[in-house]
Amino acid sequence: MSDPTSSDTPVLDLLERMTVDSVATSSLDAQSIALVRLAALVASDAPAVSYALNLAVDAEIGLGPEDVRGVLAAIAPIVGTSRVAAATGRIVTAIGVAIEVASAEMDADLAASE
């Protein structure tokens, strides 16, 4: 077994291992897991970075804005308007950051090819 303290990102590594174990243990398909995780993020009042990480995976497995809206609408009566509104703001922030990162990467690629 490797030494977890030898990594540059021990916390991210731990989260990755926990996620892999969770997915392997669950009886749900990948899309259902992603939707349930999104609902859990809202319920736990998660920060924007958590949405960014999860929405990136969601896009990779074919989930889109309609799926996100569907989850928010479904859980609103349970978690409340304020949690859904806060989550929506954090999702918008996460998407904005992702766009900025992608734009910076494109600019760097263009500059490198000149």
The N- and C-terminal alpha carbons lie at a distance of: 45 Å
Query: What portion of the residues fall into strands of 2 or more residues?
Result: under 5%
Mean pLDDT: 90
Radius of gyration: 17 Å
| Poorly predicted regions | none
Overall body shape: globular
Question: How many structural units, i.e. domains?
Answer: 1
From N to C, what is the helix and strand string? HHHHH
Number of strands: 0
Specify the helix fraction band: over 70%
Number of helices: 5
Structural class: mainly alpha
How would a textbook summarize the main sheet? none
Description:
The protein has one domain. By secondary structure, it is mainly alpha-helical. The N and C termini lie far apart (45 Å). The mean pLDDT is 90. The longest helix has 33 residues, at 81-113. The protein has helices spanning 10-25, 30-43, 48-60, 65-79, 81-113. α2 crosses α4. It has 5 helices and no strands.
